[in-house]
Amino acid sequence: MSIVPEQVAPEQAAPAQPAVAGPPAEPSRYSLKHPRSRIGWIRPAVWLPLVAMLAILGALWQWGAAKLPYLLPPLPSIGRSLSDDFGYYLKNAGITLGEAAAGLAISFVAAFVLAVLVSEVPVVRRAVMPIAVVLNVTPVVAIAPALVVAFGFGATPKLVITALICFFPILINTTTGLRSVPQQVLQVYRTMDASRLEMLAYVRVPNALPYLFAALRIVSPLSVIGAVVAELSASGSTGGLGTVISTASSMNNLAVVYASIFVLALMGVLVMLVITLAERRALHWHESSSSDRTK
Amino acid sequence: MKVSAIELDSARKVYGHGASAMVALSDVDLSIGPGRFVSLIGPSGCGKSTLLRLVAGLETADGGSVRVHGVTPDQACAAKLIGFVPQTPALLPWRSVLGNVTLPQRINTAAARRRERIGDLGERGAGKAPPDMLELLRRAGLGEVVHRLPAQLSGGMQQRTAIVRAFGLQPDVMLMDEPFSALDEFTRETLQDQLLDLWDELKTTVLFITHSVQEAVRLSDTVVVMAPRPGRIVDVIDIDLPRPRNQRLFEQSSFHEYEDLIRDRLHRAWRSADAA
């Protein structure tokens, strides 16, 4: 991930590039890595495969729903449920999203602080990391019922479960980012006797940002999973899509179950979109967003 | 008595211990006066990088002493006496060129006070205003790219930015570890010109590691030839050529005589190392 090349490529080193202000040559516009340019979506070759695939899957679903009416609800009934009870789904989606976001936020703050401690103080690293690893390999789904017993049916177990599930990826990635500053960069600032705080603020934390966003990408769907698992485990909960699903499936109301699943998927996509936008803004300097480098 | 800018007194560095111990530097004595441009040259493994790291306070000597303007390297770093240019540009990719070269002024702001308390530097640096970084960047040919990110620059421009960053500290001692080794020859000569230009104006002491005999002769007042196993100094050669040293220097026969002399000493050092 190093931005500073170990060895400068010969064509880079050549001073042939004139020192003139103005837009730099932009080869990335034609690169194959970013077919999602604004014009791209107009061309059928771009959107047709996806639309065709969706049509095939929809047809298969309808065929399955006709054959096995007890397992799959027909698509129109799912759509009707969504449009008739739009407010109901919106309210419960809001509850689940709120739990997921709050749990993620708690997890983020805790994991970030711990990552700084772990990367700065070797003793803390040795004390904490083994426990963190064990915690990570323990299935949260297995812990969830115990946490519900401990914290009741309110919001607390949901926040704890969501925070737990998000904690480890953020901790590991942030720690890696804080510690992966190239040796020679550290040496330059060590010869200025930069304090630990200055080193963190100016060098280590910015260096960790790409790692942090990578963690957020992993963790944001996990946070929704955590919230739903918590709702499913606490069968007496008052709201949330997990509760909706467990209630509806116990009454064999399949349309509601699948409508909720659809809303959850949509929610995941929206969360991902928000993170991608935030990442573009924060990491404009980074390789991962090199496509929009023109200023 | 005048204090040396850099003073090594039987400095010693050993890596590992017991039978596998490797003597990287064996009792090295070296004294460099203020304002001198000194190059270290020698085959790989001769301890020139180790010597530089000792002076930079990045490693501590196992024996003997290392002094920078009469104080320890750590104290020198605390007072920001040292400008360090590593082999790679080591820029922060999220900061613009200007952001990279101005950051050192925000770091360790207590250094100025510490510097005043160091012997002969107090009066010399009194009322030293921070340099105009934009002007320095312009002189280094980076005036048009001050707001670009490092990744948008060529390798030569990145290395120039690293050099301006170090000069921006107004260091009393400049330590450069093969800063041009990754560049092509044409870029390298341009950067040598610009380095000499900046050095001429700011007159700091420079300790410069290089693999290139030509580069050493062109830039230096003194060339220190080192030999490996164990790392030691075998020769100190003063380069008595007029300054400013521009491209016409290459046509002079005295320039090539110095080159031949240093090559000869290097070969001898190499042979003695093989015999040992």
TrEMBL record, chain A:
Residue span of region Disordered: 1-32
Membrane disposition: Multi-pass membrane protein
Protein name, entry field: ABC transporter permease
Start-end of Low complexity biased regions: 1-23
Assigned keywords, A-Z: Cell membrane, Membrane, Transmembrane, Transmembrane helix, Transport
Organism domain of life: Bacteria
Presence of keyword Transmembrane helix: yes
Location in the cell: Cell membrane
Natural source organism: Streptacidiphilus cavernicola
Alphabetical list of Pfam families matching this protein: BPD_transp_1
InterPro entries according to UniProt: MetI-like, MetI-like_sf
Transmembrane stretches, start-end: 45-64, 100-119, 131-153, 159-178, 199-219, 255-278
Record-stated family: Belongs to the binding-protein-dependent transport system permease family.
ABC transmembrane type-1 domain span: 93-279
UniProtKB/TrEMBL annotation, chain B:
Sorted UniProt keywords: ATP-binding, Nucleotide-binding, Transport
A matching Pfam family: ABC_tran
CDD domains: ABC_NrtD_SsuB_transporters (cd03293)
GO molecular function, one term: ATP binding
PROSITE patterns assigned: ABC_TRANSPORTER_2
UniProt keyword tRNA-binding present: no
ABC transporter domain mapped to chain residues: 6-253
Entry protein name: ABC transporter ATP-binding protein
Annotated organism of origin: Streptacidiphilus cavernicola
